[in-house]
């Protein structure tokens, strides 16, 4: 074990010679650090001056590494995995405590195995491959953003613009493959996908790029995500420009490699900008801080640089040096030393010309690594700190739109709040809000200088028409069937589909393929499965949208509402001579008749003393109560003999003059009105109703019975009855069409037929027209669904055709197509049949009778109370001319005797009210005279 102090730093440049870089100050202790990157590359040309500037700034700073100087040893990986590995081994032979780089993810994978063995932390500013975060690379520290977050940003962009499919164009190495794999995972979370992966070999020629773009241009998607190396990526846009793929309708999204190219020049090349007009790109976000502005000023004074400006990789490389400096400062201040020891496994290779024995293990490498991961400071890129997964905290990207002569920022992305027009720094202080309504970007100028969002796909220009499967039915040919026309099919569903396709703003070449043999109805579940398995591109027909099918295909907006209903056989009601009695039960007839007599009697009692029309001989009074109807030939004298039952059908002519009589009559007429209306409605229903031939009256009775049930062959009704309603499979009988429906229902369950048929409402309506309403729908629809066109998952045609179907519905064309094929006079009476007793019972009206009865009794009580009061004041002796004053019998005694004379009371009631009042007045005058005479006699 030994302490190493290195005073010379070797730099391997383009010439491959070793030179010495003198430090700006002398120190008692020197620590070697390495740097690995491709010097002659877009990233390398920007990173090299930044790393050198960072070393100078660290060595000149009194705040870190007091008394210790960092010596930088740079090796050029030459963008080669093999040479990069050799250069890394040569670098490690210099006993470095850490290495900055590499920029390539592929080289980082190889070198990570070397640093793992030698315990040397590897701080990479450019290796963005997400798989490098794996536990198998413990000494790899990513000091830039992970492509896992960048691909999440791309997926959010795709979802923000409502695209479902993209084509990935990527370089076929660890960087490209693993980045696109992360993109695929991120898109799946947004219900989008990569429809095609177009890979390029590293350093592909323009010819190869052109051939690849010609192939992808024939495909459906027009959204391209480009994830390549910055040194060769512009060749893609040069080829796309020549192929006319930078025009309206195309979408190009690039990862941060493109801004790395453009940011390297203070003024981007006009020819380059012409190629990338309308492109949307991402760039690693770095805050606009004062130290970043200071670095920009300092950059202009750096003489040994090959670019007029710098990209974001230069900033991360600069911060990587400072991260190592802060970590070493803490490491050394904690009392730890830097020591190396020989690896026994490497010393066994002394006989090799590779001189691997020169490599030594950094004994304190793990402690320095832990210090690096726990260090936190604010650098050019913002806050530098690692989370538990060894990723930088607060990953964020600028969303750029390339147009004109420069780059325009249209928003930002962060894992804290997604897409936003506000800088991420201003959002970290708020609660995370990743909701769809919180995603915002400024407007984009797309290729072709248009601000209208591209649809993102076209019908593929590969000469293959859309394969449309059409069910070849045995029955209900109005819906869809085979035809001799050029299309080969016809029907309601075909007309709706053709009308919707004609509304699309692009042509859709299509070829109809019959599914089934026409001898029986095909299985619609098999049809949907065939679309899901890519045997067909779409299914057009009477395909019902149900839950299980939506899991494997995408449906359009329903163009026809549907639902399962029950059809049963009916028979016409035979004429009955006594049908007019059926509306009411016997009890109802009895109570109604009794109340007619009762109310008639009550009104007669209330009117008899006041109304001369209610007087006459006893025979005439009885007729008045019982008479049913008036006769137009009766004389005025006989018109009093018709009141009670006349209230049922006629407006009686008798005038009621008493207040109580009028009150009772008004209430009774209200009761009669309700009874009369109910009778009329019930009789109408009874005379027109059809009777069911089975006990099936709805879904409940269907389930509880054991009778066989017919269903249409091939539809989902068969599985629905079994799985959802738990009906025994033995009860269900598949039928092919109208004729089998008729025969099965006519035979009934006793003769080998069915008690009911369960089918969708559109079919049932056609069946009713076919049978001229011989059968009947009972109950209500017990499912709610609809017919739609089925497409493969994530097919953009499903969404566009849904919009077209809504447009057909709004402008009335959908109804016209329906009337052309399916219109028919509907059969009335979809409710339950008349098999049950429809008579109205007393329980329906007892409340009315109760109110009427109470009113009559109250009126009678008031009336008789008045009669008794009058009777007590009445003196019949006065009327006979006798002396009413007797000394031996008091007046009160006479009242008591008369009060029990019922005959006198009846005679008193039978007198007219006017006569009673006149006698009471005479009695009062007589009493007054008698009192006066007695007073005179005593005096």
Describe this structure in words.
With 939 residues, this protein is of the alpha/beta class. The protein contains 31 helices and 35 strands. Helix 1 (42-60) links the parallel strand 4 (29-37) and strand 5 (68-76). Glutamate-gated receptor that probably acts as non-selective cation channel. The chain crosses the membrane at residues 588-606, 660-679, 845-865. One of its GO terms (biological process) is signal transduction.
Which short descriptors sum up this protein?
alpha/beta, disordered N terminus, six-stranded mixed sheet, single chain, 939 residues, 31 helices
The shape is elongated
Mean pLDDT: 82
Beta-strand segment tally: 35
The rounded Rg comes to: 51 Å
- For the terminal residues, how far apart are their CA atoms? 163 Å
* Main sheet characteristics: 8 strands, mixed
The portion of residues assigned to helices is: 40-55%
Alpha plus pi helix count: 31
Order of strands across the main sheet? 10-9-11-12-13-18-19-20
Query: Pairing-aware structural class of the strands and helices?
Result: alpha/beta
Question: Low-confidence parts, pLDDT < 50 over ≥5 residues?
Answer: 1-27, 628-645, 647-653, 829-836, 878-900
Strand content: 15-25%
């Amino acid at each position: 074990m030994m302490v190493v102090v290195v005073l010379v730093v070797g730099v391997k440049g383009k010439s491959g010679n070793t030179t010495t870089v003198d430090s700006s100050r002398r120190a008692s202790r020197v620590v070697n650090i390495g740097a690995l990157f491709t010097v002659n590359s877009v990233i390398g040309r920007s990173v090299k001056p930044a790393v050198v500037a960072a070393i100078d700034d660290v060595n000149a700073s009194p705040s870190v590494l007091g008394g210790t100087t960092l010596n930088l040893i740079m090796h050029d990986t030459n963008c080669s995995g093999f040479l990069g590995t050799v250069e890394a081994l040569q670098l490690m032979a210099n006993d470095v405590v850490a290495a900055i780089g590499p920029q390539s993810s592929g080289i980082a994978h190889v070198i990570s195995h070397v640093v793992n063995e030698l315990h040397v932390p590897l701080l990479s500013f450019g290796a963005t491959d997400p798989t490098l975060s794996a536990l198998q690379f413990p000494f790899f520290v990513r000091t830039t953003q992970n492509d896992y977050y960048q691909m999440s940003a791309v997926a959010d962009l795709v979802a923000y613009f409502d695209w479902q499919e993209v084509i990935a164009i990527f370089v076929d190495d660890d960087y490209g493959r693993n980045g696109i794999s992360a993109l695929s995972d991120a898109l799946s979370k947004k219900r989008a996908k990569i429809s095609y992966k177009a890979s390029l070999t590293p350093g592909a020629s323009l010819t190869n790029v052109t051939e690849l773009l010609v192939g992808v241009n024939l495909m459906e998607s027009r959204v391209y995500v480009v994830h390549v190396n910055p040194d060769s990526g512009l060749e893609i846009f040069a080829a796309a420009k020549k192929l006319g793929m930078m025009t309206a309708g195309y979408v190009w999204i690039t990862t941060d490699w493109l801004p790395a190219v453009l940011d390297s020049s203070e003024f981007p090349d006009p020819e380059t900008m012409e190629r990338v007009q309308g492109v949307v790109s991402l760039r690693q976000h770095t805050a606009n801080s004062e130290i970043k502005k200071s670095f920009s000023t300092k950059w202009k004074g750096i003489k040994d640089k090959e670019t007029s400006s710098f990209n974001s990789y230069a900033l991360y490389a600069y911060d990587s040096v400072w991260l190592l400096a802060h970590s070493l400062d803490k490491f050394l201040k904690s009392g730890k030393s830097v020591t190396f020891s020989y690896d026994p496994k490497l010393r066994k290779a002394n006989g090799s010309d590779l001189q691997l024995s020169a490599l030594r293990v950094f004994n304190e490498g793990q402690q320095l690594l832990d210090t690096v991961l726990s260090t936190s400071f604010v650098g050019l890129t913002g806050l530098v700190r690692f989370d538990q997964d060894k990723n930088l905290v607060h990953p964020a990207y600028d969303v750029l739109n390339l147009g004109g002569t420069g780059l325009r920022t249209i928003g930002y992305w962060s894992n804290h709040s997604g897409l936003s027009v506000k800088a991420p720094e201003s959002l970290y202080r708020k609660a995370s809000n990743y909701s769809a309504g919180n995603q915002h970007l400024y407007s984009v100028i797309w290729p072709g200088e248009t601000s209208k969002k591209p649809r993102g796909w076209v019908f593929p220009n590969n000469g293959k028409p859309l394969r449309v499967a059409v069910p070849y039915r045995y029955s209900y040919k109005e819906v869809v069937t085979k035809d001799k026309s050029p299309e080969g099919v016809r029907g309601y569903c075909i007309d709706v589909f053709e009308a919707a396709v004609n509304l699309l703003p692009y042509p859709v070449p299509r070829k109809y393929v019959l599914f089934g043999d026409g001898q029986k109805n095909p299985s619609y579940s098999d049809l949907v499965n065939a679309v899901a398995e890519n045997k067909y591109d779409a299914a057009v027909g009477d395909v019902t949208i149900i839950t299980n099918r939506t899991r494997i295909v995408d449906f359009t907006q329903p163009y026809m509402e549907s639902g399962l209903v029950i059809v049963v056989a009916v028979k016409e009601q035979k004429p009955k001579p006594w049908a007019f009695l059926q509306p009411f039960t016997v009890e109802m007839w009895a109570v109604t008749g009794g109340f007619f007599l009762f109310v008639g009697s009550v009104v007669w009692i209330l009117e008899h003393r006041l109304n001369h029309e209610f007087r006459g001989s006893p025979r005439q009074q009885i007729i008045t109560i019982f008479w049913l109807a008036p006769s137009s030939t009766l004389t005025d004298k006989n018109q009093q003999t018709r009141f009670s039952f006349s209230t049922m059908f006629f407006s009686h002519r008798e005038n009621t003059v008493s207040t109580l009589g009028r009150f009772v009559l008004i209430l009774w007429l209200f009761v009669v009105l309700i009874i009369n209306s109910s009778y009329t409605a019930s009789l109408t229903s009874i005379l027109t109703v059809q009777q069911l031939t089975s006990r099936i009256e709805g879904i409940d009775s269907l389930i509880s019975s054991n009778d066989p049930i017919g269903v249409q062959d091939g539809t989902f009704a068969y599985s629905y009855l079994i799985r959802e309603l738990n009906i025994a499979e033995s009860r269900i009988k598949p039928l092919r069409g109208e004729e089998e429906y008729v025969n099965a229902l006519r035979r009934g369950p006793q003769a080998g037929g069915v008690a009911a048929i369960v089918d969708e409402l559109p079919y049932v309506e056609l069946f009713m027209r076919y049978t001229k309403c011989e059968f009947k729908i009972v109950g209500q629809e017990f499912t709610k669904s609809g017919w739609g066109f089925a497409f493969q998952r994530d097919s953009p045609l499903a969404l566009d055709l849904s919009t077209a179907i809504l447009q057909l519905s709004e402008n009335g064309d959908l109804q016209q197509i329906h009337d052309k094929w399916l219109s028919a006079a509907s059969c009335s009476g979809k409710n339950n049949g008349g098999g049950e007793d429809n008579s109205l019972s007393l329980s329906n009206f007892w409340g009315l009778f109760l109110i009427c009865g109470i009113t009559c009794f109250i009126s009678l009580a008031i009336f008789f109370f008045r009669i008794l009061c009058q009777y007590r004041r009445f003196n019949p002796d006065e009327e006979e001319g006798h002396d009413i004053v007797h000394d031996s019998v008091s007046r009160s005694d006479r009242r008591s005797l008369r009060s029990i004379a019922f005959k006198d009371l009846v005679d008193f009631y039978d007198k007219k009210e006017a006569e009673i009042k006149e006698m009471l007045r005479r009695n009062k005058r007589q009493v007054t005279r008698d009192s006066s005479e007695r007073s005179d006699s005593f005096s």
